[in-house]
Amino acid sequence: MAGQRIQTRKDAIAERLGEARERTLALVEPLSEEDLNRVYSPLLSPLIWDLGHIANFEELWLVQTVGEREPLRGDLGRFYDAIENPRRTRGELPILSAAEVRPYMDGVRERTLEVLAEVELDETEDPLLREGFVYEMLLAHEHQHNETMLQLLQMVDRYEAPEEDGGPAGETVSAGPEMVPVAAGEHLIGAPEEGFAYDNERPAHTAELESFWIDRTPVTNGAYLEFMADTGAQPPLYWERDGEGGWLRTAMGRREPVDPAHPVIHVSWHEADAFARWAGKRLPSEREWEAAAEGASGERANLDQLGFGTAAAGAYADGAADSGAVQMLGDVWEWTASDFEPYQGFRAFPYPEYSQEFFGPDHKVLRGGAWATRRAVIRTSFRNWDLPVRRQIFAGFRCASDDAG
Ligand SMILES: [Fe+2]
Question: Which of 166, 183, 185, 355 is at 20 to 30 A from 242, Cα to Cα?
Fold first, then answer.
């Protein structure tokens, strides 16, 4: 029955909005007001800005746009606009304090749920509402802000992770060849018309690829250490000497020996590219990456944050792609050789500032999501992008080559 189905869809949306908010609040729960306000890096907003922005973006889309209502605090919008306010300036804005932001988040959410109860999601031609698109977009937005919040939390000394679920430590590590082949032929790239995806993943199209080989696992700390020793390359972000010739990881105020079996993380595109050339390989193009990821499981992958770190390279082999490559999803975002460019036939939706303004040779594409990515965000067609110098993101890589190497 249609009426019942609509109710179910709305209930599911309301429940997922609640779950997303729970996670956002859980991540900041251990922090003091001082921590929330502190500017740790010009590359990242203070956490207090993220909290207000999450609610303000929700108000803009789910209350003002969908519900055609006035905002609770119309004066705030311009301070929480991500384009108007670059990250390095966000610590100086007259934004809501820790005491004010929670009531604002709750107030917006209350109105969001009122609008949701009234809105028509099935019998509508409005592309913003059809299949609940705008709600999926808002869920993805909050989820993705959790990942940028975790980027900042890497810098918070003695951050106590809220509720570690034991994480990926217990996963069996598979053995296998260093590289796996992907046959020449046509591969489906991008997201289909049905279901939620961002504008930059569409339209879906086929790509004719030459055969190539791709690393079965992400590049490990152990391999990266060899590269550093051989070339004098800098260590990844959050590594420090242990005083005895070894290396420690220092993220979240912990000091632990670097585990050579884990994927390297917090490296720039330039470093990934230099490693690949040093290894006699290259970075995969994003289309090659997507072809190699066909069939990868997002369920059997180290995603969703609560493990608070990577799994060893070769873990989650039961989530492997059809190619045999493991960890294509989860653990570390993977730098690709590709610039962030629109697919042929791209149309900006629902606003050009999401993708279109970033197209061009300045940004490189990353694929696959990291341990810090919420599971609901990621799919093999998902395209992330960043400047090639960036290292605060949860980025590693794997290499490709034209032959078995
Ligand atoms: Fe945002």
Answer: 166
CA pair distance 284, 276, nearest whole angstrom: 10
The answer to whether the beta carbons of residues 217 and 313 sit under 8 Å apart is yes
Strands 400-401, 395-396: pairing is unpaired
The answer to whether 108 and 67 have CB atoms below 8 angstroms apart is no
96 C-alpha to center of ligand 1: Å? Answer: 16
**Ligand 1 center to 1 CA (angstroms):** 37
* CA–centroid distance, residue 286 to ligand 1 (Å): 24
**Which pLDDT score, from 0 to 100, does residue 404 have?**
78
Question: Which segments in the chain show pLDDT lower than 50?
Answer: 1
Residue with tokens 């729970």: 22
Q: 3: which 2 tokens?
A: 């009426």
Predicted confidence (pLDDT) per residue in 303-344, tens digit: 999 999 999 999 999 999 999 999 999 999 999 999 999 999
Containing H/E element for 20? helix 2-28
Q: Whole-model pTM above 0.90?
A: yes
Give buried/exposed letters for 332-353 (b at 16+ CB in 10 A, else e): bbbbbbbebbebeebeebeeee
Task: Evaluate whether 132 touches 8 at the Cβ level (below 8 Å).
Answer: no
DSSP at 63? I
Question: What pLDDT is recorded for position 171?
Answer: 81
Distance CA 40, CA 404 (A): 44
CA angle 345, 348, 353 (to 5 degrees): 140
Per-residue b/e over 22-34, b at no fewer than 16 CB within 10 Å?
ebbeebbeebeee
Percent of the chain with pLDDT over 90: 83
Place of tokens 């999601």: 121
> How far apart (Å, rounded) are the C-alpha atoms in residues 376 and 143?
8
Spacing, Cα 352 to ligand 1 middle (Å): 14
- 178 alpha carbon – ligand 1 mean position (Å): 38
DSSP lists the bridge partners of residue 282 as 400
Say how many Å lie between the CA of residue 54 and the centre of ligand 1: 7
